[in-house]
Design a protein that fits this description.
Elements lengths: L22 H15 L7 E4 L6 H14 L3 E6 L6 H16 L6 H17 L24 H19 L3 E6 L6 H16 L4 E7 L3 H8 L7 E4 L5 H14 L3 E2 L1 H11 L3 H14 L4 E2 L1 H24 L4 H11 L6 E2 H7 L8 H9 L3 E5 L2 E4 L4 H7 L4
Parallel strand pairs: 1-4, 1-5, 2-3, 3-4, 6-7
Antiparallel strand pairs: 8-10, 9-10
Length: about 400
């Protein structure tokens, strides 16, 4: 079939043609936005799960939903070479610039001035003016250099401006497990303050399965955040992720062909998109047959091995790869650190730095004390396919 019309889109954070199986989360977020607009508090939302389950896609959809309501929205991804102060500051510039106008209300002008001071807190040479003379406006003071003080001042003034505009503020952070300890504590404190004082502010975080534990260790009250375990799709939703986009392009799947992809993908959204794309390209059309699906799965696995899995494997050093090989003997379910050490004829203590580096690289995580697991489904099988060094 025509590859130009191929509706499947494998890729990090790319919205699929049919976003299915996440209706409850989207509905609860929408209710939260409406509650905030009505002056009621909204719980921070935490999305957690393995890589490839669609956390970033879902987080971005939450952002789009807030933006459609004309909210002031900032989305950032932790773990880059920039700190959260800079990431959030730069993410806020565009929505604030869109609101800036000479006849803006007092609280909006105040928030703009505070945003300018926040910019100065991480970029002494950078100048924001928003095209307005804010000399007589209140605000500012978000440049003390203390992250909690500055971010709390910024969010509080943004909340006032949003309330004046009849909207709210949404702050979304992806890969939240990669925030530094100070950054994580700060965003928790500010999110808690927003909920306590009924600010029209919605926080959402996305990260690996370890994120709930990391948040709880940062501040105990984060246990009252709203947690959403983003996992593989239900069989019905997985089938819909394949059939709805095809129908929109006047194509269809044989029922058995759908079953082939569902089984091979284990209903993980990223894999569904990859196998769907390759099955479409293999089919003469307009019906995708079992043979097309099997060919798509085979080609898709080659693509995953060459890219999705390979990129992660190659980030590990030789010693780290040895650790991953020892884990792979247990599959994707997780390994006892002691068992891994025993297979490598090493002590658990001596392997501590290797384990820590693998966690830092996002290749593994610790679901519980003394246990490690892969952050990517199917990684164990990929490693077992790799020739020994």
């Amino acid at each position: 079939m025509d590859p130009v019309r191929n509706p499947y889109q494998p890729g990090a954070g790319r919205k699929p043609a049919a976003l299915v199986g996440r209706d409850d989360t989207l509905r609860e977020w929408q209710v939260g936005l409406q509650r905030a607009e009505a002056g009621r508090s909204i719980q921070p939302t935490v999305l957690y799960g393995l890589r490839g389950v669609g956390k970033t896609v879902l987080l971005s959809e939450l952002r789009r939903n807030a933006a459609r309501r004309q909210w002031i929205v900032a989305q950032a991804e932790a773990g880059s070479d920039r700190n959260i102060r800079e990431l959030l500051g730069e993410a806020l510039y565009a929505p604030l610039a869109d609101l800036a106008r000479p006849n803006a209300g007092r609280r909006l002008l105040k928030a703009l001035k505070t945003a300018i001071s926040f910019k100065a807190s991480y970029d002494a040479s950078g100048i924001w003016t928003f095209g307005l003379d804010l000399g007589d406006s209140g605000g500012g003071g978000a440049d003390t250099g203390v992250l909690e003080t500055d971010l709390r001042k910024l969010v509080a003034d943004l909340a006032g401006a949003a309330e004046e505009e009849g909207v709210g503020v949404a702050i979304l952070i992806d890969e939240a497990q990669d925030l530094t300890a100070d950054e994580l504590t700060t965003v928790c404190v500010v999110a808690h303050a927003a909920a306590q004082d009924d600010w029209p502010v919605a926080f959402a975080f996305a990260g690996l399965p370890s994120l709930p534990r990391i948040l709880a260790e940062a501040r105990s009250y984060t246990e009252r955040f709203r947690y959403v375990n983003v996992h593989e799709l239900s069989p019905t939703a997985a089938a819909a992720a394949l059939t709805i986009p095809a129908a929109d392009e006047d194509a269809e799947w044989e029922d058995e062909a759908v079953g082939v992809v569902i089984e091979a993908s284990r209903r993980y959204p990223y894999f569904i998109q990859q196998f769907g794309q390759d099955a479409w390209n293999a089919a003469a059309g307009p019906v995708i047959s079992v043979h097309d699906a099997e060919l798509g799965v085979a080609r898709g696995n080659q693509q995953l091995d060459a890219g999705f899995f390979r990129a992660r494997w190659d980030r590990a050093t030789r010693g780290e790869q040895d650790y991953l090989r020892a884990m792979a003997e247990d599959g994707d379910e997780g390994s006892q650190s002691g068992d891994v050490a025993s297979r490598m004829a090493r002590s658990v203590t001596s392997l501590g730095p290797t384990r820590a580096k693998l966690i830092s690289k996002g290749l593994i995580y610790a679901p519980e004390y003394g246990v490690v697991a892969f952050t990517v489904p199917g990684m164990a099988a990929f490693i077992r396919r790799q020739p020994a060094a």
